[in-house]
Amino acid sequence: MPAIVVAAVVGVLFWLGYRYYSVYLAERVYNLDPAYVTPAHRFTDGVDFVPTNKHVVFGHHFTSVAGAAPIVGPAIAVFWGWGPALAWIVLGTIFAAGVHDFGSLAVSVRHDAKSIGTLAKDVISTRARTLFLLIIFFLLTLVNAVFAVVIGNLFVSNPGAVIPIFVEIPLAIFIGQYIYRTRSAALVPSIVGVIGLYLLIWVGQQWPIDITPFADAIGVDNPRNVWVVILFAYTFFAARLPVWLLLQPRDYINSHQLFIALGIIGLGMLVGWNTIVAPIVNDVPAGSPAIFPFLFITIACGAISGFHSLVSSGTTAKQIDKETDGRYVGYMGAVGEGSLATGAVLAATAGVVATRGEWDGLYADFSTASAGGVGNFVGGVAAFANNLGIPLDLAAVFAAVVVISFAATTMDTGVRLQRYVVQEIAEIAGWHTLARNLTLAGIVAVVVPLAMALLPGGGDAGYTFGVLWQLFGTTNQLTAGLALSVVAVWVTQKGRNPISVIVPLVFLLVMTSWALIVNLKNFIEADQWVLAPLDAIIFVLAMWLIVEAALALRGSAGRRTPDVDRTGPTTDGVSVPSDQRE
Fold first, then answer.
1. How far apart are CA 349 and CA 278, in angstroms?
2. Could you tell me the pTM of the whole model?
3. Which residues, in sequence order, are bridge partners of residue 570?
4. How far apart are the first and last CA of the chain?
5. Which residues does residue 574 pair with via DSSP β-bridges, in sequence order?
6. SS3 assignment, position 574
């Protein structure tokens, strides 16, 4: 089947989801009100709380959530066949991710833009906050460890990507300084940044940087591990910089990259008329992970991701100008990530190779699929770009830069969020030195995922990528389910029908609990005595929080707290809802 036909069908389904289902959520479930005075207006400080045009907020939100995960997961999950992978991406995006991302944002806006962990305390119980924060800590640990491994592997296999990625850092800082000091709009400087980045791709191709000799000289068998250490050293310092100096300008640059990548994938498929050579349902070899539950945790981002609730309630909620902007930012952000995941599926099934026999070799077993998933995406996108006349070797560096840029942005955000969570947990525990010392909290935020990425356990060079990815995916989907539980309780308390939230909530909790149990058995049998206790701890915390949420949901069903009149006197021309008046 032509890949472009599949892409067009998926695009129509996503449009229908946004056109109709997101409207239902906005009007009947989350009950958005254009007159509601958002936290961005009530707490405006010019730093974190800034009322912002919805298109600009969408760019920030989309870039923050669209890391490497919607590329890596789908590129691995086509192991079970492109049909199941795309079905989960489409259904998950429309009925789970859209509900989750939009809902997390809506609840946060209604609670002073508090984080989802803190919201668990307000909506469910005090204990729920602590439990949720601990689970989020484990999630961020795995996010940062996994993405460091992804980037390290890509630097080793694509040394031409090193120069553009590292020069992008001072380039972004220069752009950030320019925008901050001149108060200029970000569009033109960010476009200049993208042009500069793509010129550097050619430079990187001419002078690739291979650190294998250096790794050999210091006695490190796998040069990837050297890159992992360098990456965490960088993120330690990057997480201390003001967001306007590096994180935001990199977001500006990478938001353009994202749309360029999607455009090249689509146009390349159209011009080349690539056909899908992979089976719609693959006959996987004996001993492979079962499609239930593992498909639904292998594809996390791209179908639904708990990490998105951290972004929605962490930074995006502080920038929403009008409450009704939440539909465009939250739901459309999920659709955008689903589109990227669709592109990853098609790159790994229609672009990377031309025959079924070649594809079978790339996906001979789950270990091979896990190890080669990112490379298959890079090869597929390079083939699509080659259809447009771009030389294949240059196109491969471009695809690698796209993946690394997204993963690096997520690492920057992830380490920063990890530091916040460490400080919040330390405050609850009464460890005031750790809670108030940014340097100490930053060290913890870096050392824990660094150890996870480097410790031996799944092979001579550390944990096999498939093992880390499965545990990451499980924890990520679990966090999404728990975030949905907060949204479900809040919706029920408001006297609205929570079924659109409860269905994906129950599905995710069943899949993730199932996967945690299966993985625990596998870890014990494989003598994985770091991952097995970690899996067990996450499972216990999850079960405890599920009970807390169930009790809160049961109690809220009989205790309706409907929205009060949202019109009232104005302050500086802004209508203030009566439930916000002092």
1. 5
2. 0.90
3. 575
4. 62
5. 571
6. strand
Q: Which residues contact 499 (CB under 8 A, 6 or more apart)?
A: none
CB of 567 closer than 8 Å to CB of 35: yes
Phi and psi at residue 485, in whole multiples of 5°? -65, -35
Instruction: Output phi, psi for 388, to 5 deg.
Output: -95, 5
Strand partners of residue 52: 320
Phi and psi torsions of 32, nearest 5°: -65, 145
- CA nearest neighbour of 235 among 226, 247, 225: 247
> Is 314 within 8 Å of 64 (Cβ atoms)?
no
Check: CB of residue 98 under 8 Å from CB of residue 441.
no
**How confident is the model over 214-233, as pLDDT tens digits?**
999 999 988 999 999 999 99
Cα separation, 468 vs 452, whole angstroms: 9
Q: What DSSP letter does each residue of 10-27 carry, written as one string?
A: HHHHHHHIIIIIHHHIII
Per-residue tokens: 156: 């080793």
- Percent of the chain exceeding pLDDT 70 equals 93
Please choose, from the candidates 244, 258, 188, 290, the residue with its C-alpha nearest in 3D space to the C-alpha of residue 521.
290
- CA atoms of 230 and 222, how far apart (whole Å): 14
Structure token pair of residue 495: 């006297």
Domains located in the chain, CATH noted: 3-580 (1.20.1740.10)
Phi, psi at residue 575, to the nearest 5°?
-65, 125
Could you give the C-alpha distances from 221 to 154, 162, 224, in angstroms and in order?
17, 20, 9
Non-local CB neighbours of 274 within 8 Å, separated by 6+ positions: 2, 3, 4, 268, 346, 350, 351, 383, 384, 387
568 pLDDT higher than 50: no
Whether residue 567 is predicted with pLDDT greater than 50 in this model: the reply is no
Which two tokens mark 148?
């460091």
Tokens of 191: 């476009």
